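User: Round two. Same drill as before: sequence, then structure, for each protein.

Assistant: Same drill it is. First protein:
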Amino acid sequence: MRNIYKLSCALMFSCLSAYAQQDSAIVAKGERLLNLGYGVTVKAKESSAAISEVTGEEIMKSAATNPLNALYGKGLGLTVLQNGGTVWESVPTTMIRGLNSTRDNSILVLIDGFERDLSMITKEEIESVQILKDAAATALYGLRGANGVMLVTTKTGSKKKIDVSVNYEHHFNMLNRLPKFADGYTYALAMNEAMKNDGLSPMYDQTQLDGIKNNDPHYGNVNWMDEVLSKSGSTDNVFVTLSGGGKIVRYFSSVDYLSYKGFIKPENIVDEYSSQLKYSKLSIRTNVDVDLTKSTLLSFKMSGMLSEHNRPNPLTGDLMSMLYSTPAAAFPVKTPYGDWGGSNVWTRNPVAEVAAKGYARSHQRLLFADMAIRQDLGMFLKGLSVDARIAYDNFCEYWDNYGMNYAYAVPNVSNPSSSEDYTLKGESTAASFSSSLGNQWSRFNLWGRVNYANTWDDHKLNVTLAASREQTILNGQHNTRNRINYDTSDPTLVQDDYFHYKEQIYALYADYNRAFGKQFSMQLGLRMEHTRTTGISESENTTDKHDYTRLFPTLYFLYSPNEQNALNLSLSNRISRPSQNMVNPFPFYQNKYTYARGKEDLKPSYTYNAELGY
């Protein structure tokens, strides 16, 4: 279990004549509020930080079903790289302002203030996405925001009559840019030529060449891509939204159903079961805001997701590898006598792998739930307010597996002409069922804030004191972990690892902004962090504690001669703390002879960053 405690204070003092930098051009409407997180907002014209915003309307213009893919080409400084794989695993890689490290470049994604996976919700739920890109914008987040921060706000209701929206989308998915492979006859001629060049006997005699050329069923001349894959698939997406409200209660609800059918040819799907690439997902969200009093706002947000995907027993990447590597002349799909084709060299028949190896099915369950309450204390001190938030997230994945095997026929003569000229290898077995838990985790968050904001003359003061606690429980976290199990005959190589690690982080943050005329502005930030760590290894009988405090300054200058150009310089200092595994002294064996172990007194590392941008 890892507990994270955070305490932060934000102090912002700025002149109202400040101008937003060009990076924020898509939100540079002077009165629009930019969200810096932790409940801190600032008008675009008052901020010198590099912030881009993408509205929900822009996201809905994309045909992508994954919100991350829908962000492609939107948001200055945001890079979205599409990954391969099936629809349920093609989560893109996202970066802000390119590669910042040779190791981890992942950005921090917060949905309604809590760290969550954006691909787990639907684009219909999103009100806006704000991208914090530079040190001035991400200073509130310390190390977590080193690679940039993405703040996602979901939709809420408004004071209006009920608004119901029903939408349906049908997508045609096409396979394009597939390679064209040589047919069996061309392959056989090329192999004979290669053997001749090496001074060896031909691989195929004339009878075999004629049989391959004339599509004799005893020989192989198979376009494996055409045999296994169809030319197109389809996606159906239905989503319904309901929003509205009155003076006291406002609400937003959405239901989204997605159904995907993949590219496995229907002819290869047997009646007893389906090995088609299929994916279905049902997402439901409800957001409710209630004005308990004129000064008290209660918000409740909950999102649930049920999904299921189905695939052939070979992994998709494994199946594509077979299609690429199995020659057209290797063997026929089936022999004239009804057996699956095969050979001593290529022992896996791509069509049989789809039609006769069974299938695997995954079931996923997800819950995001959070509640927030905000109390305005202006009756005691103008501009004073308090906020509290609580969140609980849970994810679980189960697997069903229907596995079976098939026998394949290998010719034992060069030119087979009867069933007696084949030898069956492997064994055909009936489907056997098994189930397992794939992944599971739960996360609890508690967050509180005291805020003071006031404006006088041409100045604005915003002071925030916030504290948060995060607890994450991973699958198997409370179970015994057998770290060394490669030789059970040796008692010294069978050990159990009991390691308890606790990390507490307290932070204070102060931020000062000032504009010098209409072209120059400056931002100075100072973050103080106090860290306490405790690592207890019951297996090694050791306890190690660390207690340290450090200051992390941030300095940011902006020169903006006009609305189309901006030059900025930022200087910052960040910390990189060792992870739990890096301080666990128990040896982790990669094999019987190689192991790795953490160093319990490992200290954090510090980096100094200087960025010049235009």
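Second protein:
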Amino acid sequence: MQTYPTGYAESHRIAEQIFREILPRHGMAVREEQIALCHEVLDTLYNKEISLCEAGVGIGKTLAYLVACILWQMHRPSQLKMPVAISTSSVALQDAILNEYLPDLSAVLLAEGIITAPITAVVRKGKERFVCDARLAERQAKAISKGSRQKGSLRMAENVLDLDHIPGLSRYDRCRICVPQSCPRDCFLRLDCRYQQYLRDSMKPDIQICNHNYLLANASHRLEERPLLLRQYQALVVDEAHKLPDAARQMYTETLSAQDMDDLCSLLQQAHFKGLSKRLRTVFLTLSISCAPSFAMPKRKISIPFSLTPFRQAAIADSINLLQYIGSQPDMPYYLQYRLAEAESLLRLFLLDVPTRILYLEFSADGQLTFCAASNRVPQLLRSALWNTREPTILTSGTLTAAGDFDHTEQLLGLAAYAPLRHFRAESPFNYRKKCLLYIPARRAAAVPENQYLADQIVRLTVACHGHALVLFTSYRQMRNVYDALGGRLTFPVFQAGRGQNRSIQQFKQSGNGVLFAAGSCWEGIDFPGDMVSLLIIAKLPFPIPDPVSNYERQQYPNLRDYINAEVIPEMQKKLRQGFGRAIRTEQDSCVVAILDERAGIGGKYHDAALAALPTCPII
């Protein structure tokens, strides 16, 4: 006879009651997919397993896993109770969990007698995201000539600890008032420090919320037996889990930028090592010159594989020797010794043929150099950092599968050979067969330039739909070029959402019948409910952009076709589904989705792959 852990049956019973009786009394619809997901999360928690949970748009996955985690914690023995950690990719979701989902859910469960005390939670972030009171006071004393808006932002920082919640704060001021990497022990505000109080308070809540980078940094501390960033947790939920491999790739890439080099020289000068600072600047300048590309630089960020030439070898060796010499000075402060050793260690990788590293040079749009050493063992590192701890873990997202298959995600996450591994899929409850039309136009005439063709199609479609259109691009450059090719032919308000331009998105939402040109982050995580978007245009299939890391991955396959099928197409399919998800956000929405990429058209090279990524809906 099978036995279940304490509280298992009761947790499942209460979950049914919450979703079928209690939440409907408070205005929420019953969604079978949401209830099934909650039961899956409960099973994963009680069995101490790992589950990949794909939940389509509109299921309400956040509420499903929050209810499951709360019920599981309720029935844990008091001596075993520790927090649950929730990791997300976006600040917006963190804020929504902390300020919307949890307070509302807590109020309902308290009123219904399910819980006896409010649910507590805290958002954990890196110290550079918080205000240092001592540095703020110092900055305010120097900011006499600041404009009224910037002064207002600095005054707001006196009462708001989280820098992400201070509007109008310049990047320069943010760097000058954030908590430093190491706080001086003799700080005159240490006893009254808001950041130190935040750290003390963050040890108490039931739920800890963080981003993927912070989660990985905490795992790194644990492996290196350093003090943990998060309080020890008993279960982990990774929301927006499709973004975890990108965060891991970033986390496991060591970098040394031109700005890092300049900062290091400035710190040496401030510490009264002016002669050594000047020598280091000269050596770094020679190093930068040795790495300058032999071709004309485009006005955008590029990455190129690193190759060791005699000039570069000599420049790197000179830099390493000088960094060692400076670090060996008897009166060199510890924090500078650490920074010097970090730079030396990174540059040394570029002299050695390290088989676990992918070496490349990155140049910003204005030509600034960054040395990058990426790990080629990210899946293995993720496994040792997160999965080998054996804490129950739920990884959830709307796009964990490619054409219904979890294999690609398992490989990226280091779970390909993990056992036991659970899988759960719940399709969106939205009726795409009735609410959505997919439009794929005929091939363009060879004589028509691509951008002109896209502009003509966009004009024709938006006029037919009277605006209300979101146009997604895979390139900001093409977005601008197509916008220019419109030539003012649209009578609707047209907006371009550049990098970090949230104002354009808000203006579009308020316009009533506008057209928004967008790229980058607008492919996911932004809601346009109602008739705000009744036409979604996808200009190009979102294939990943080649870079030195993907070039390395390509070399691991016997031929290009195998690489494209195993890596490139699954990435495209997941990103395409993210973009498609902007079309319908509620049961009442309806939308036309147009894919203008010829490769997705009938007879196109990726027609079948594109359709396999999308829900079934009529094609016109």
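The mean pLDDT is 92.

User: Perfect.
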